[in-house]
Amino acid sequence: MKKTTIIAMMLLLFTAMASAQKKTIRVATDNLDLVMQVAPNGRLYQVYLGKPLIDAADYDNIKWNVYAASDGSVCTRGHEVYATSGSEEFFEPALAITHADGNMSTYLYYQSHEQRDVEGGKETIIRLADNKYPINVTLHYVAYTKQSVIKAWTEISHVEKQPICLWRYASAMLYMKPNTFYLTSYHSDWAREGQPAEEMLLPGKRVIDTKLGSRAAEMTAPYFQISIGNKATETDGEVMLGTIGWTGNFSFTFEIDNVGALRIIPAINSYASEYSLKAGEVFTTPEFIFTMSDKGIGNASRNMHDWARLYQVNMGTGDRLTLLNNWENTAFDFDQKSLAELMKDAKDLGVDMFLLDDGWFANKYPRKDDHAGLGDWEATRSKLPEGVPGLVRDAKKAGVKFGIWVEPEMVNPKSELFEKHPDWVIMQPNRDTYYYRNQLVLDLSNPKVQDFVFGVIDRIMTENPEIAYFKWDCNSPITNIYSPYLGKNQNHLYIEHVRGVYNVFSRVKAKYPNLPMMLCSGGGARMDYEALKYFTEFWCSDNTDPYERLYMQWSISKFFPVKAMGSHVTNWNKKASVKFRTDVCSSCKLGFDIDLKSLSADEYKFMQEAVANYHRLKPVILDGDQYRLVSPYDTDHCAINYVSADKTQAVVFAYDLHPRFREPQKALKLQGLDPTRKYTVTEINLEPGKVSQAECNGKQYSGDYLMNVGIDVFTADEGASHVFELK
Ligand code: GLA
Question: Which of 284, 326, 350, 464 is deepest in the core (most CB within 10 A)?
């Protein structure tokens, strides 16, 4: 018999054996399936990822990668669900261990699995173990049925005689069948958050990672988009949106292997973080969250938004407060009297809350600029003689809620805290100190420091139970990487610090479950879904130039619901009209950070009306479905519409950025409406004395017309904006 015939016969025999022993595990949602199978070798392979097959029995027809080796033997190789180091796997592993005896190989065999109902879907728990070393790996997948979102994480433990060293510990690992892949990642910097870069993935590895310590998103963002086959658009194409919930160093590895398949490994960045795991301890990875759609990016985003509001973001289905912040207006220059005036302004404007920013604390080294005071969380007596209670009282008198800024994880060397506890600070013992914004990071790996940071919030709240909101800032990455607490285990610093941060967040949430908080980090360096379990929203960027914001909000809203995206009207780019600035922020979670007294009477009146409109339309904008219609990246315009869940209401935002002279304008086709319903279109947010020039204003159209013919909302006027309410 010829060698090829023998191989073919062996393959047949193998396939027959295999189908007899196949154990299929399906992580299923309405529009996304992840399917795994146990192979005859006892190991677990991914066989499918994508739109569910109509007949689940078809999953058994999918072949593993079965190879006939040159010696005629048959082996199973590749696309192992949680690939390990030292095996026949030649690519980047999800898990790499140096065992207590120095052996660097790990082989994981399927042990058992179970599925149980959880809120919103089903959790699949798969237990794997090595057959030579007492290593246990438990894979978790929560499949959110209606939203087609899957959340995956992993637990690693062992009972070896000595600690083992983990040098790769991914949250999960996913594969996509050979195709052309376009990766969109989001690079960033202060005031330049969420800048997309799309590239075709080539054979080999593309790694996106950070080394910032206790931030997620500066330099690059912890989320990505993969288009499969062709570049996806908002309405077409197959696309994955993925993000990791880790407020620290993360890494995404995208590797195209020898057969052209794409391997995706989301993980904590193991840079400087080889983790020594003791017997009996469980190492739990962060959650990797992803969704896929074959109907374009918009559909995938709406999956994410629904899921986030229902199951992940703190008080995701609750209301959000509009506010007046004082940072861009006063910076550090205020006192009790001037704040009392601003509180009255907030009331008059019609917003829910006044938010006091940086500069209210410290006495020995008062916080009059960013050089001193961080760490000393007592109100500066010279500025605020009646302390925070006096401010809470003034706000109450003015008729608004009161919120306050804190940055409790940080310290200025010029502070009483630093003088008292230099050992609480992450700082090199034997090198010159590098200062990022004149400050240093407290060592949250130290439980005493965790108590202190929790105590900052707890003391303020105990003294002032009526505080309605915190803006929690974090203005420095971890610098001078050395923890006095961890001694010789410096390799644990990056991980234990972030765990310490979560310990504090969760204690705050447990004690103050109804306290809304904004996550801020020198602008938008903290936007991730783990922190959002504790926070109601995040600050997208210190860059509030409305033009820039349209781009950023477009990108960031792919992954996060606008309900969680703070957007404040400021004086960044005064050339843009107050209307344009307000209309840009009204498409997110609206706030103001501007000297209201500097506005003209008309501008102010406009703002008051816009606030009232926003309050009326908040349920549609913040809880409705978002459709990104016209991208500022592709055109000179931008448009978005929101539709209420029952499709009876909608809001359209249309912006003219930098149109060309006499540029012909395309009609704007809306999305997400009920084609059979009639909608009356009314232009709102009009400047005083102005009448709508829009032809559609006051007219009634069917949803079908609005979606297929569209309305004329764009102009050739630079910096014009129009908002329409549809009922
Ligand atoms: C950071 C925040 C700003 C403001 C300042 C205060 O930069 O992003 O919004 O709170 O800190 O120092």
Answer: 326
For 629-726, the fitting CATH number among 2.60.40.1180, 3.20.20.450, 2.40.50.100, 1.20.1530.10 is 2.60.40.1180
Per-residue tokens: 11: 């393959």
Please state the rounded mean pLDDT for residues 223-235: 98
Instruction: Please tell me the distance from the alpha carbon of residue 451 to that of residue 508, in angstroms, as a whole number.
Output: 11
**Contacts of 684 by beta carbon, 8 Å cutoff, 6+ apart:** 613, 723, 724, 725
Cα–Cα–Cα angle for 55, 49, 197, rounded to 5 degrees: 145
CATH topology of domain 3-312: Beta-galactosidase; Chain A, domain 5 (2.70.98)
Q: What's the CA gap between 331 and 73, in Å, rounded? A: 73
Ligand 1 atom index nearest CA of 521: 8
Q: What is the CA radius of gyration of the chain?
A: 27
* Cα 316 to ligand 1 centroid, rounded to whole Å: 24
Residue 237, token pair as written in the block: 């194409």
The Cα 154–Cα 108 span in angstroms is 13
Kindly tell me if the per-residue pLDDT of 147 is higher than 70: yes
Pick the CATH number of 334-626 from 3.20.20.70, 3.30.360.10, 1.10.3720.10, 3.30.470.20: 3.20.20.70
- Nearest C-alpha to atom 6 of ligand 1 is from which residue? 358
Structure confidence by residue, pLDDT tens digits, 284-315: 999 999 999 999 999 999 999 999 999 999 99
* pLDDT band, residue 65 (cuts 50/70/90): low
Domain parsing of the chain, residue ranges: 3-312, 334-626, 629-726
Q: Is 625 in the pocket of ligand 1 (CB under 6 A)?
A: no
Identify which of 215, 325, 330, 358 to mutate to test ligand 1's pocket (most ligand atoms within 8 A of the CB): 358
Residues 218, 521 contacting (CB under 8 angstroms)? yes
